[in-house]
Design brief:
By secondary structure, the chain is mostly helical. The chain has helices spanning about 5-10, 15-35, 40-55, 65-85, 95-100, 115-120, 125-135, 140-150, 155-175. The protein has nine helices and no strands. The longest helix is centred in the first third of the chain and has 23 residues, at about 15-35.
Length: about 180
């Protein structure tokens, strides 16, 4: 069944179609939620809340672009809501420190496997992890991140620099062990 057929059936209230939609996208979306939450229990809560929103607002999907992308954006927004409510998203705004910490030693990063990199990302402080996920993985601009998080664009850039530095320091540290 195509995404459009699945959407039509869900809009008609077909519970089998709703389960099929959940089954089709829940694995990928769980990975998105986990990247933001950092733990399985919170990620599962976010996933459930996100799919409630998906089904509630399914009629608003204009079918102009990727359905998976629309669901992903819903999951990212639900993750951000969760982090705000849990007060886990403390963003540091000291740009001078970020510029000092940011280095050019990115050779080590390219040697990492995806699984190792994802593990390091989940270990980041929530503020770093959130901005890093939005910018480096989801492809948001710093302006979009700033709007979503209610911070300045420079704060978003600072958080991203600090997140990169945090990753590079851990990588170098682990290589020297």
């Amino acid at each position: 069944m195509t995404d459009d057929e699945l959407i039509d059936k869900c809009l008609e209230g077909d519970q089998r179609a709703q389960k099929a939609l959940f089954d089709r996208f829940s694995g990928k979306m769980m990975a998105v939620c986990y990247r933001y939450a950092g733990d399985n229990e919170s990620a599962e809560d976010i996933l459930q809340d996100g799919f409630v929103k998906v089904f509630k607002h399914l009629g608003a999907f204009k079918r102009e672009g990727s359905f998976e992308g629309w669901i992903r954006r819903t999951m990212v927004n639900t993750s951000l809501d969760f982090l705000r409510k849990a007060n886990k998203m403390k963003l540091d705004t000291d740009i001078s420190e970020a510029e000092y910490l940011a280095g050019d030693d990115e050779k080590s990063v390219s040697k990492l496997r995806v699984e190792e990199m994802m593990k390091l990302i989940e270990e980041m402080p929530p503020g770093y992890r959130t901005v890093f996920n939005m910018f480096a993985i989801e492809g948001y601009s710093h302006q979009e991140i700033a709007e979503q998080l209610g911070v300045t664009e420079s704060t978003s850039k600072t958080q991203f620099r600090k997140a990169r530095t945090y990753l590079m320091n851990i990588i170098v540290e682990r290589e020297n062990i």
